[in-house]
Amino acid sequence: MNLSRSFSSLLLVLGSACVGAEDLVLDVEIPALNVAEYHKPYVAIWIENSKGQHQRNLALWYDHDMRDDEGSKWLKDLRLWWRRSGRQLSMPVDGLSGATRPAGTYELTFSNKSQAIHGLPAGEYQLVVEAAREVGGRELLKLPFQWPAESSIETSQQGSNELGRVKLTVQP
Amino acid sequence: MNIKKLTTLALIAASMGVASEASAHRAWMLPSATVLSGDTAWVTMDGAISNSLFYFEHHPLGLEHLEILDPQGEPLEAQNKASGKYRSVFDAQLTRDGTYTFEIRTNGLFGAYKHKGKNVRWRGGVDEMGEIPAEAEDLRLFEIDRLMQVFVTKGAPTTRTFEAKGVGLEMVPVTHPNDLFVGETSEFQFLVDGDPAANLNVVVIRGGIRYRDQVDEIQLQTDAQGRIFVEWEEPGMYWLEAELEQSGKLLDNAKRRMSYNATLEVLPL
Prior knowledge:
- The complex is a heterodimer.
- By secondary structure, chain A is mainly beta.
- Chain A has helices spanning 3-21, 79-84; strands spanning 24-30, 42-49, 54-61, 97-98, 104-110, 123-132, 138-147, 153-158, 165-170.
- Chain A has a five-stranded mixed beta sheet. Chain A has a four-stranded antiparallel beta sheet with strand order 5-1-9-8, with no helix packed on it.
- The N and C termini of chain A lie far apart (33 Å).
- The longest helix of chain B is centred in the first third of the chain and has 17 residues, at 3-19.
- The termini of chain B are far apart.
């Protein structure tokens, strides 16, 4: 076993240890892009029901700390999120909005006690991740899931442009 | 047919064209965006009369009758108004959340006649008809009711500015005009003098005509309630127009020409 492999296994062990204590775990990869002008993407993550109706916001990464909240000017580029939820909100939203993130994989965990998913009724849902990048493109990934899960269920999707791999683990 | 005759015919055709200026060409406003976010936002608008959409190639749009209503229904002043060879332009600063309506209403009389051997065009109201000389020849009078609209929304869409005035051709959005998406069907209702305009022909044309061989206009007709249903197949800026000609409402010997047009943006999901 080489060093990089053992590092990955260590991460896996740590990852699964975290999963056990939580109900919804999400890994979102922001890909490194070789482009002339790179800006970190705006990202919105939310839960919609099987009819596509918005249920809960989980995260919003944007330039939230610019002067006069100028970063909110580009929130409408998260087209689907803006239509389903964003345009109804007043920015910044406590516990939801945060800074944009550089390339890398980010783990987000939501326990059923967290404000984001507390009281989410049983049913079929989709987790939606939408990314839009200044002078770049936009990408949307949807991961269906059943809530609550009877056993630990993992689903993942591979983005092709603005998103890398997105993995969702639903723990009972 | 000799050249002289041809020229005469062309002149007649041109003067007829003058009487129906908007029919011969397409008048439009084109906003820089229809869906905006942020605390304050600016929208900049082009206005032109042209053949092809949305290109500046004929005449700038007159902005004298431009009115902007903010989401509360209060007037908003246009800034940086300018008019060039082929287009007009202005800006508007949006501070309130909701839907803004930009509109140009033209109501009045249009006349075309010959006076001392010259073709004359005239515009005015019924009480200004005395301006037309008594010795005017070939006088043709039209009642004009035109409305051009553009809708722009910052934040969540609102509907307060959609109230019809009950004059001429008007459109009452059933689907919000800043909530149009590919793959969805939108509903709009048309009114003539406040009543449903049944069997009205409506055309919808996507911009970018220069880059395709056919205009590809979508031809629709309103139902008994004055409604049309448009299914959007492609994203883009669309120009919607309806025209209606009736006998005069104010004058017995005049025709009444009504038109409505709007520029609508359809977004991909």
